[in-house]
Amino acid sequence: PLLSKLNESIEQGVIPEPPNEKLQFSIIVPVFNEYRNGHIFRLIEAFSLQHSTSAETFELILLVNCLETASQDAKLDNVNTLALVDAITNKEVVLEDSSDYHQRVLQLARNKGLVIHAIDLTSQPLKPLTQDRKTNVPIGRIRQYGLRESIRRFAHTARGELGIVVNFDAD
Fold first, then answer.
1. For the residues of the chain, what is the DSSP string, one character each?
2. Are the C-beta atoms of 40 and 82 separated by less than 8 Å?
């Protein structure tokens, strides 16, 4: 199922908003269970504090994913991550039950105009690569999905396919 989703993304794209014409950097970040431990907030804060480049030249693409063996807590964490991205991109959305730090990061990202997208891959949980390790994630396939979406987005800018794709981890 993920491979068919990969092929679809290259043709039609999964991020409905068009890229900024000044887009130079597309930062791909696979995300799983990163809300409660604060990793997603530190990542967003770090990119919101960038002074060497303007927010219109880069975008964060979060690939929210999970294994089929994921706990309910981990799945809820992913739901919260998706809600956070929604709250950053839509000022009408309120981030419920969040700390002062979380609210500061939210406001910082909004004020910076951080361009952030979340691709929800949780509807098709992934199988671990091996039976003996439940946390052995097929991360290469997840990154490939983000890479294809980034390439598609660069092709729709004034610069054509020129751009830099960076892979990060949320932690």
1. -HHHHHHHHHHH-S--SPPPTT--EEEEEEESS-STTSHHHHHHHHHHT--SS-GGGEEEEEEE--BTT--HHHHHHHHHHHHHHHHHH-TT----S--HHHHHHHHHHHHHT--EEEEE-TTSPBPPSSSS-TT---HHHHHHHHHHHHHHHHHTBTTBT--EEEE----
2. no
Q: What is the pTM of this model?
A: 0.86
Mean pLDDT over the full length of the chain? 85
What's the chain's length in residues? 171
Indicate left, alpha or beta for 169 from its phi (over 0: left) and psi (-120 to 50: alpha): beta
pLDDT at residue 56 is higher than 60: yes
User: What does the buried/exposed string (b/e) look like for 131-142 if buried means 16 or more CB atoms within 10 Å of the residue's CB?
Assistant: eeeeeebebebb
